[in-house]
Amino acid sequence: MRRTVILVVLTITLIVLAGLESYRYAQEHAVRLPTPVRAKAKPAAKTPTPPDACAAACERLRVCEDPQAGPACSAICRNQWSPGVADCVKSATCTQTPACFADVRGPSCDDVCQKVETCGLLKPEENCRTLCDTQWDADARQCMMATACNEIPATCLPAAENEPCVNYCNRLGECGLVDPADQYACIQSCLTIEEPDLRDCVYRVGCDQITAVCLQRNYDPVCVEACERLNRCDALGDLPFEECPAACYQQWDDNTLSCIISRGCNEIGPVCFQQYDPVCENVCGKLVNCQLEDEVEDCLAVCTTDLADEARTCITQTACGDIERLCFGREPNMCDVVCRKAVDCRIDSDYQACYDSCTGSYDLMLIGCILNHSCEQIPQQCLQ
């Protein structure tokens, strides 16, 4: 009996030891699998809530006298509610509308604004509640509550830190081209399309000209510069300023643009557009008839750009022989004067031959005699 008990004990002991050894061996030689890691799901892009759906939902809240049906309701809907929430609200009874917001994520604007004001992140003219209602979606609010004060602007509101885009959208807002509720969307759009020339344009023209000038499909900043110069030089003529860039895009080549920008104001019309002062047509016509100019076209450019109004008036009102002396302050060309008189008196039929002979000899006594006698007296008194 005793021997049997001892054998049983020894058998049990061997089994236990064998089991322990098998377990140890299995642990040492087992293939260790990596610990599963839960993949972070990418947040789904927020589907914009259609304006019509927001309008209907906000109207429903207004009928139900819900506090959320305030002036910012549509903006809050577009920025913070999913299309499903808006559809739920517009179809719900007044008692059911609270349930529609059960899935709207993120901290409340009251909590966020308390933190933002504590962090000193607002400018004096900014209203936190308006910003939160219209620009900060649930993700932004969640980020702001979970982020240190000094990291909130760059981490949670990167668009608001882009000063050029903020200023651009503020300008559009001032001009009534962007609704305050769409300010954040404007900034986001600005960030995705890098157009510094467009941003510069909205400051260079008046509010009423931004759409016609800056938002054209073929906008060219050089055309704006040229049109501004024409306006400053009072050289637009009958062309309205807001139509000037379109005319520039369609009609002016690079040479014309360079001319407008580089020439003096009084040269733009005649030199860049070959548009001459109508008064100069009469002036130059007379100067050519008086043989004081050779070509009307050459005279027109000089008259339009360089001839003072007093000189123009003088030329049109003065006899040919006196124009140089009275209108230009020059001493008369005596040979020219005496040969004109000789031709007028029919003493000589060839003005040029007379002039060449006179300048060659320059006989002052003969010149004086012809000028001091009448046509009838000249042959007898001067040419004997």
Describe the structure.
The protein is mostly helical and 384 residues long. Among the domains are: 51-100, no CATH class; 219-272, no CATH class; 276-332; 334-384, no CATH class. The protein is built from 25 helices and no strands. It has helices spanning 2-29, 51-63, 73-80, 83-91, 97-100, 109-119, 128-135, 138-146, 152-156, 163-174, 183-192, 196-204, 210-214, 221-232, 244-251, 254-262, 265-272, 278-289, 296-306, 309-317, 320-328, 334-344, 351-361, 364-372, 378-382. Helix 2 runs parallel beside helix 4 (83-91), helix 6 (109-119) packs across helix 8 and helix 17 (265-272) runs antiparallel to helix 19. The longest helix is centred in the N-terminal third of the chain and has 28 residues, at 2-29. The protein is rod-shaped, with a radius of gyration of 46 Å. Mean pLDDT is 75; it is low at 1-10 and 12-45.
Topology:
Elements: H1 2-29, H2 51-63, H3 73-80, H4 83-91, H5 97-100, H6 109-119, H7 128-135, H8 138-146, H9 152-156, H10 163-174, H11 183-192, H12 196-204, H13 210-214, H14 221-232, H15 244-251, H16 254-262, H17 265-272, H18 278-289, H19 296-306, H20 309-317, H21 320-328, H22 334-344, H23 351-361, H24 364-372, H25 378-382
Helix pairs in contact: 2-3, 2-4, 6-7, 6-8, 10-11, 10-12, 14-15, 14-16, 16-17, 17-19, 18-19, 18-20, 20-21, 22-23
